[in-house]
Design goal:
Elements: H1 3-11, H2 13-25, H3 34-46, E1 50-53, E2 62-68, E3 72-78, H4 107-128, E4 132-139, H5 147-153, E5 162-169, E6 173-175, E7 181-190, H6 206-220, E8 229-236, E9 247-256, H7 259-280, E10 283-292, H8 299-311, H9 319-327, E11 355-357, H10 367-371, E12 376-382, H11 393-399, H12 402-424, H13 426-440
Parallel strand pairs: 3-4, 3-5, 5-12, 6-11
Antiparallel strand pairs: 1-2, 2-4, 6-12, 7-9, 7-10, 8-9
Helix pairs in contact: 1-4, 1-12, 2-3, 2-4, 3-4, 4-12, 6-7, 8-12, 8-13, 12-13
The protein binds zinc ion.
């Protein structure tokens, strides 16, 4: 059924793997993805797409289109790496370069799978004379959860009638999961320095203000809804114990299952900080870094995607793949069989039919912003060993070898095939939009990135 796009993706396998490998070998963190962006744009141009780079105010973003008129089907790629996650494609922990970034979230695969989907769907449209437009969005800086927000502020994603967004993972599954919205901000306190032994009465400690803020936030936990998460780290606590710190800073996240709750608790955290400043006679400056929306899964598109996952032939693991997964330090089996049932018990690499995930999850993704602008769905495919923790060195390792590449190519085929279904049957877009309007319930997308905020 899905042959044309899948065959084309198979034909282009070398180009896709080469691109994913190049990005893996040259990891670039949020907003600095210069090479990844350029190489991705290059391949899309070669495949006949109309490619714009540096759109929506971000130098490393891409919008590539092919086709004309409606419906418009989108694929959302990402390509940023994580700091200090450098790792060889080996089964033991060893950095390629100590302290350098690495693709521990496997975004080297993420962007390329969406390129594969876009070129696969284009081929399908050419051969079958299907009408519509394919759009590839290259979205920087997912790891700081604001790339898509910055792009959305300048009008991105509004052209889409439906979109698909894949993420690497340990299993194959469509995700209807509700994940959290976030605000990220720093507090900078300024006080008066003094000799901590000689004349402490003349000092006003900025560190005291941070500590009192954190005490206040910890008391606040009792009086927020159960879905709220608040975390922090002190980024500057002063220089030495014998100096009353006149400068101190901390970095905070607040998460919750709705954007409204995040905004409400954020305001209360700022009040706590102002209270701490008053108590310590210091000044506080709030540096707002950005935020993102919770996810909003579209069930109409989830059904289409799940059907596509079942139709497309999944990854075929070789003995070497299984050996690699088994030998990875800290590798765990799927001993409970929770993932994929009895048949999948004791597996190191996921096998069996794709799962359909619902419920709640407390991590976040800026795909949530796009899902509040247009109907969209996320899914994952297995690109690592089953027991790999998120953002782990095992992920970096698997993303630079066969296991990751196979999951990426499966994802590309699934999305191209799902895109074909959307173009073949326009009632899908109508129903997806109807569901979208219903879940938005009259609310408008309000970009969490304020006007004037720069990256
Ligand atoms: Zn990620």
């Amino acid at each position: 059924m899905e042959k044309i796009s899948s065959n084309y993706i198979d034909n282009k396998e070398n180009d896709l793997i080469e691109l994913a490998t190049k990005i893996w070998e040259s990891p670039e963190v949020a907003f600095t993805e210069v090479n990844a962006c350029e190489w991705t744009a290059e391949l899309l141009r070669k495949e006949g797409f109309n490619v714009e780079v540096g759109v929506f105010g971000l130098p490393t973003s891409i919008r590539a289109t092919w086709g004309e008129r409606k419906p418009v089907v989108g694929f959302l790629g990402e390509y940023d790496a994580l700091p200090e996650m450098s790792q060889k494609a080996e089964t033991h922990k060893e950095a390629i370069e100590e302290g350098a970034p690495g693709h521990a979230c496997q975004h080297n695969l993420l962007g390329v799978a969406h390129v594969g989907a876009a070129i696969g769907l284009k081929k399908e449209m050419e051969e079958k004379g299907l009408k519509g437009t394919v759009v590839f969005y290259g979205c920087p800086a997912e790891e700081v959860l604001t790339g898509k927000g910055f792009m959305a502020r300048e009008g991105a994603f509004r052209d889409l009638d439906a979109f698909f967004a894949w993420h690497p993972g340990p299993i194959n599954a469509v995700s209807r999961t509700l994940s959290t919205a976030v605000n990220s901000f720093k507090l900078h306190f300024t006080g008066i320095t003094a000799h901590a032994g000689g004349d402490p009465h003349n000092g006003r400690s900025a560190l005291d203000a941070i500590e009192l803020t954190n005490v206040g936030i910890n008391y606040l936990r009792e009086h927020v809804t159960d879905d709220v998460r608040m975390h922090y780290t002190i980024t500057n606590g002063g220089q030495a114990p014998n100096i009353v710190p006149d400068k101190a800073s901390a970095w905070y996240y607040v998460r919750a299952l709705s954007r409204e709750t995040v905004e409400d608790v954020y305001e209360r955290m700022i009040k706590v900080a102002k209270g701490a400043a008053m108590m310590t006679e210091t000044e506080v400056e709030v540096e707002f870094l950005g935020g993102c929306y919770n996810s909003l899964a579209n069930n109409v598109l989830a059904d289409v995607l799940k059907e596509s996952m079942d139709e497309v032939e999944p990854q075929k693991w070789t003995e070497e793949d299984i050996k690699f997964a088994k030998e990875l330090e800290g590798a765990k089996t799927n001993s409970s069989g929770m993932l994929g049932g009895e048949n999948n018990k004791k597996a190191y690499l996921y096998e069996g039919p794709a799962l359909d995930l619902g419920g709640e999850a407390y991590a976040s993704s800026d795909v949530g912003d796009a899902q509040h602008i247009a109907p969209g769905i996320m899914f994952i495919t297995a690109t690592s060993n089953i027991g790999a923790a998120g953002h782990s060195w095992q992920n970096t390792a698997c993303g630079g070898m066969d296991i990751g590449m196979k999951g990426m190519l499966y994802a590309a085929k699934v999305m191209a095939n799902a895109g074909k279904k959307v173009l073949n049957d326009t009632s899908i877009v109508d129903e997806a939009k109807e569901e979208f309007e219903k879940s938005m319930n009259g609310r408008e997308y309000k970009c969490p990135i304020p006007k004037g905020l720069k990256i």
